[in-house]
Amino acid sequence: MLLIESGQLAGQGWLLNTDVVVIGREIGMCDLVLPERQVSRRHAKIERTPGGFVLTDLNSKNGTFLNGKLVKRPELLQDGDQIEIALCVKIAFVGSDATAPLYTPGSKATRDAMRGIRINKDSHCVYVAEQEIEPPLSPQQYRLLELLMEANGGLVLRQDIVDRVWMGESAYGVTEQAIDALVRRLRERIAEYDPDHEYIITVRGHGLRFQNRHR
Predict the structure, then answer these.
(1) How far is the C-alpha of 83 from the C-alpha of 93, rounded, in Å?
(2) What is the gyration radius of the CA atoms in the chain, in angstroms?
(3) How far apart are CA 211 and CA 115, in angstroms?
(4) How sure is the predictor about 114, in pLDDT bands with cuts at 50, 70 and 90?
(5) CA distance 37 to 88
(6) Which SS3 state, helix, strand or coil, does residue 178 take?
(7) Rounded CA gap, 204 and 116, in Å?
(8) Which of 100-104, 180-184, 200-204 has maximum average pLDDT?
(9) How far does Cα 214 stand from its chain's mean position?
(10) Is the pLDDT of residue 113 over 60?
């Protein structure tokens, strides 16, 4: 498991339950997305090997550090190691033996470590709390969510939504009611997997903004 100790996502955990976890700033290209500007689009990766988890820098601009030393080649991680991404995000690596008594399936700690939404732009899969939304979002729902997430917390105007979601000539005559219905349905789909957090915030008279889980 990775425990983020500093940066905008401080307090969040990430379960290493896949063979490769790519860390970086770019939504859709990375598994663990760090929104800090100093972080490269694809910064580093952690890969599961027969010998354990290995950290590799992906030719990042500002470097990856392990226990204060610049990572120049793949490094085997040990329980308690501290990873620094561009010297702006500190991440603790917790080995599987150490996490066993603390992070059991269904525990609050495990649920907290699996919060938030991430998307895969290649497959258009959407994950809420590390659960894939099934059946998949409709094309319009997916395009709206992608647009909101790309804004990284910034305001998305209703006209931007029309241009992106309905696209081209089909956008002619889109009503406020149609936009509201789409937003409502997307909220409902997300709430099926995480009903305790409001991801899509309405800014009355202006548009929407996306608020992912960070803590």
Answers:
(1) 7
(2) 19
(3) 12
(4) low
(5) 9
(6) helix
(7) 24
(8) 180-184
(9) 9
(10) no
The tens digit of pLDDT for each residue in 62-96 reads 999 999 999 999 999 998 899 999 989 999 998 75
Two tokens, residue 32: 């663990």
Quote the strand ranges of 86-143, DSSP E: 89-93, 117-120, 125-128, 131-132
Share of the chain above pLDDT 70, in %: 87
Between the alpha carbon of residue 28 and those of residues 52, 83, 104, 127, 181, the distances in Å are 26, 22, 28, 11, 26
d(CA 93, CA 4): 9
pLDDT at 168 over 90: no
The answer to whether the CB of 86 falls within 8 A of the CB of 71 is: no
Unique residue bearing structure tokens 């002619």: 172
Q: For residues 150 and 172, what is the distance between their CA atoms, to the nearest angstrom?
A: 24
152/158 Cα distance (integer angstroms): 16
The better pLDDT of the pair 134, 98 is held by 134
d(CA 48, CA 153): 32
In this predicted structure, the answer to whether residue 183 has a pLDDT above a threshold of 70 is yes
Among candidate residues 39, 46, 151, 37, the one with its CA nearest the CA of residue 94: 46
| Residues in CB range of 51: below 8 A, 6 or more apart | 76
